[in-house]
Amino acid sequence: MMSSIPSAGDTPNPEGGLDHSTVSHLLGVAAEPAVRPADALAIRLGGEEGREWACRILESTPVEGLEAHDLIQGPTDLDQLKQLHRLGKKRFHDAESNDDRHSGLLWYLIAIAAAMIDHETELSSQPRSEVIDAILIVADSLPEDWRCRLEMVDQ
Amino acid sequence: MAKPEQKKDAFPATQMEWIHERMDAGKEGRREVASHLMDVYAEPLRIYLLGSSFRSAGEPEELINGFFANRLSRDDYLDGWRASDKRLRRWLINGLIFYIKEEFRRRKKSGTPISPELEADLEDSGDHYRAFDQAWAASIVRRAMSEAGQICQKEGLAEHWDIFIRHHVQQQPYAACCRDHNVDTARAAVMARTAAARFREAICRQLSLDGADESSFNDELAGLRSLLQ
What we know:
Chain A is an all-alpha fold.
């Protein structure tokens, strides 16, 4: 059963190392609630269905004249990013469904990331490290081209 | 039909529905459920038997195989579980203990003596539940690790999973985990968080397959952790 666990380099197979203490610790990890909106969004993006949902959302931006491939490839227009940031924030706060809320947060974070990467501008007043963490946790669950683009926020 | 672990379109709370659907689908569906139960519960039952006084009753594998063959061949066994509103693992450990009692009765009738200690042990179900739940907890963690590891691999998150294992299982600090992956410690922590989310979902699927409601997952996890202290 455990032979299929992917591990890199010289990581030992953990099968033999699950004593009571480790099992308890891992159950504790599983019990930590994903209360942060970025974690909830990342969970929404997980799996086949989540990927499909992301692709549908990311197909077209809510800002007129701003194409998805502009956001992926850059460079971007800062005014359009500010507009995307505002619209994402509004959608997040006014959402009537979880998916609306998630899509609002997704555009909000993408706008912040693109502004950091292309313009070295911070659109959010939140601490930079927290914002980067949120972007990266969401980036991990996005399709490859979006993931690569958003990961640049940390480089 | 796909096995429940592979049902990626379902949230954890719906996992038990797979068992009910298959049970309602006739003989073939019930065979799938039986196969699933043996796949999931044989290991914790075996570990439980190895650590119990029943290890003197015979080879654990033989006892478990005998138990599954005896009970799961009867349609009313799983119907009884559905009517009982009990967790699957509680139903199965009760069933195994009853099965062992039946075996002992058979042996007594044929003139093989049973030690008084062993007979007394059969009456003390609390200790059996605790020991089995410990084995089951380790089993669902292993299964969830296997499942989450495969999902991470499939989603291109193998490095995230590796950092998760190094940090949470091997207890390496992020500063050490990140070296092989060319990321800084903050990024390593975020990567582990992503993998932890996959692990959390996998654990929830395991709990759901045992019959836990989504609303009770945290209580269930807290209960299992307290057994392991």
